[in-house]
Amino acid sequence: MRLNKTALGVLMICLTIVLGGCGDSARSTSDADTVSSAKENSDKVDASKPAVLEIQLLLLDSTRKMSGVKVDIQWDDSGIPSNTSAWSNQEGLVHVEFEHGSQLLSVRANPSNYSAPGSIEAPAVLFGGLTHSIEMVLSPAGALYGTVYDIESLPVAGAKVACYFYSPEFVDSQEELKVDVFTTSDDQGRFALGGIPAGPFVLEGAFENQMSVWRPGGIMEEGASYRELEIFLEPAHSVYGQVIDKNEGPVAGARIVAGKPNRRKNRRSTDYENLFNYGPRASVTRSADDGTFVLSPVPDSQGWNVNARHPDFAQAHVVIDAGQIDVWVELEEAISLTGVVSNGDGTLLSNTQLWLLTDERDVSVSSDVEGFYKFSSLRNVDD
């Protein structure tokens, strides 16, 4: 956003930010001497010169300056959010020039071998002729070391190893999710990943037509190193399907979730108390306009459950056997059960939990502020 000189109040950014894992809130402190210095330099604002942004990257509880860290900067360009990236130099400094009057929005430090990622919201106007400084203090990164094996427990060279900074349960619920850090296993199947923030994580491996059937995940402690982790791969294939109604017409927009039975309970312990080996990642997708969908990948040796949901239909459940390559899911039109909750004198009761017990599953809802409740997507079952 461009502002004329008379509309600009002089601002000098000088923040000390302590950053933990991805998404952690930041602490900032202000320095009276710095503010005073900015006022003294107010007459040096020059709209014809670029505004300079300097970001100093430091490691928490040390004097180490973090070099080789990629920093993403978001700024406002005449009302349009824009992004630029730069790398810190040997002194841990990032130096970027902007046009006078540019609006700084946020700064994000990407994970590196020794520092965890971190981000701050830093709204400020950048003035030509001045240098604006931000000091970012990054938390120490955790590291993961291990080996990728195939179905015969032989090391797999060249396997892709990805790490998500989320719990396995969250990753399994997403249709799409960006990988946070990744690497490739060496000729002995070994891998090493740094830049892991404190908090949940899960690893995945893949190689040609193979997928992870056991993958490590758990909670990373700040700056910890976990070694001798194991990722096991098995051959996998795609399953092609279609969602239809009772008249065999296609159903578009159905959410399809497929996974190994009891996958949330089926985990194996490791040498670390807060780490486990989890089964294969669930496949989550939606049916296209013609009702078709693809589940990819699915382990060749496993049978999976497939659940389909759509707001206009009752939930459906089917099973695909090991090696099966196609599946049809038929949805039945749903019915709803509605009503109000009240006490003996007719007073409507809000926020009351109700349970509907069926042969297939138990469903729970809560009444709203007016005591109204609604059970949706129920199957019409004839007695």
Written overview of the protein:
The strands form six sheets. Strands 9, 10, 11, 12, 13, 14, 15, 17, 18, 20 and 23 form an eleven-stranded mixed sheet that branches. Strands 1-8-2-5 form a four-stranded mixed sheet, with no helix packed on it. The protein has a four-stranded antiparallel sheet with strand order 4-3-6-7, with no helix packed on it. The protein has helices at 32-40, 168-172, and strands spanning 14-19, 51-59, 70-77, 80-87, 93-98, 102-109, 118-126, 131-138, 142-149, 160-164, 181-184, 190-196, 199-207, 210-220, 225-244, 255-259, 267-269, 275-278, 283-286, 292-299, 304-310, 313-320, 326-330, 334-340, 353-357, 362-366, 372-379. It folds into three domains: 5-138, Immunoglobulin-like, CATH 2.60.40.10; 142-330, Immunoglobulin-like; 334-379, no CATH class. It is 4% helix and 51% strand.
